[in-house]
Amino acid sequence: MFYKVLEGVKVLEYGTLVDAPFCARILADLGAEVIKIEEPETGDESRRQEPFLGDIPGLERSGLYQYVNMNKKGITLNPRTATGYKIFSELLKQADVFIENNPVKRMKVLELNYKHVKEINPRIVMTSITPFGQTGPYKDYKGGELINESMGAVGFDSAREVDVSLEPIKLPGHIFSFQTGLGAAVGTIGAAINQTMTGHGTYLDVAEQESIMQNLHAMLRYYYYKQVCYRTDVLDRAPAHILKCKDGYIHHANMEEVQWQRFIELMGSPEWASGELFATYTSRAKFWDALKPLLEDWLKDHTMDEIYRASQDRGSAIGAVYTAKDMFTDRQLTAREFFVDIEHSENGKLKYPGVPYRFFDLPRETPAAAPQLGQHNEEIYCGRLGYTRENLAKLKEAGVI
């Protein structure tokens, strides 16, 4: 954990890849005890996702798995067996929160959907994350990062209006799965607060498609302007662009006149800047094809840090476009001790992003590494549920754990 805000809250996670595991990790970071259930032998699908430490695949070597599942306890369990389902039910009885991201039909067949879970534990908060939600004509559709991004209207934003032969592109990583997990965690914490006050459980139905669209500026632009957004250099105002400089890129967002004038002063007040073509942000957008090379001609002789620092000093809206490499040495993140070193028994000490908040009246705890496959089987099954080591050996032999 990072802070003991949710200490005492018991969470059961039956998720894979990113959205449900990240939702559970947010609660674990805040002090909740999260028990992660994985399939025997194979574990979470994210264990087979790159990047791998040393570019050597292995169940304990995935950086994605390690990051998304830190601060949790991990057990293996097969609920498709009669004994496995009995054990799963025992764990549900002890839990305050249950988080999962399995297909609707699968949870129904396993009798782990909310209809059955609330019979096992009436006061539980259950959060289900699926591509399109538990209801509607798409509820049984399969999904994934690329599918959800496309059906959430983000994929089309990456198309080129100026060249329709170029297809939309996928944004990198699992950005929208992380976004979905974050939204699900907010709802889950709210439900847990309500549970504490009323003693009642509830069911959260989270759709990844809706999570993507919730934060999509393109939806507002279409609703207000009937404008379909594309990935393009042609905007209705300028500059609002990412431009290349001597050693990288800067984000130029000087649309307000006073900000634009401050940047012009930084450039040495070139004569072309006083012409009618570039008098307003709309005219600068209209004649962007003429303005862009003039800006880039100056930018190419200056470094990203030079432009960024000088612009900040003048109150000009310029942002540095950092790479991941830049972030590890960033002065701001270093001062706030954002990155944390976590010791893993197999991988050694590695650095991970921390949490984006600070509780000034609470000490920050030392976070724990993600669990190895089945690492806490004995602790949970023997220490909590009363099984013996001999029982565990038989359960493993039978494919239950």
Would you summarize the structure shown here?
With 401 residues, the protein is of the alpha/beta class. The chain is 39% helix and 13% strand.
Describe the protein:
The protein has 401 residues and is an alpha/beta fold. It folds into two domains: 10-215 and 337-397, 3-Layer(aba) Sandwich (Rossmann fold); 241-326, formyl-coa transferase, domain 3 (2-Layer Sandwich). Helices cover 39% and strands 13% of the residues. The protein is built from 18 helices and eleven strands. The strands form three sheets. Strands 3-2-1-4-5-6 form a six-stranded parallel sheet, sandwiched between helices. β10 and β11 (348-353) form a beta hairpin. The model has no long low-confidence stretch (mean pLDDT 90).
* SSE topology string: EHEHEHEHHEHHHEHHEEHHHHEHHEEHH
* Shape annotation: elongated
Approximate strand percentage: 5-15%
CATH topology (level 3) name of the largest domain? Rossmann fold
Share of helical residues = 25-40%
- Specify the CATH architecture of the largest domain: 3-Layer(aba) Sandwich
Instruction: Provide mean pLDDT, rounded.
Output: 90
Present the secondary structure layout:
Elements: E1 10-14, H1 19-29, E2 33-38, H2 63-68, E3 73-76, H3 82-94, E4 97-100, H4 104-109, H5 114-120, E5 125-130, H6 145-151, H7 154-157, H8 175-198, E6 202-207, H9 208-214, H10 217-225, E7 241-244, E8 249-252, H11 257-266, H12 281-286, H13 288-299, H14 304-314, E9 318-320, H15 324-327, H16 331-335, E10 339-344, E11 348-353, H17 377-382, H18 389-397
Parallel strand pairs: 1-2, 1-4, 2-3, 4-5, 5-6
Antiparallel strand pairs: 7-8, 8-9, 10-11
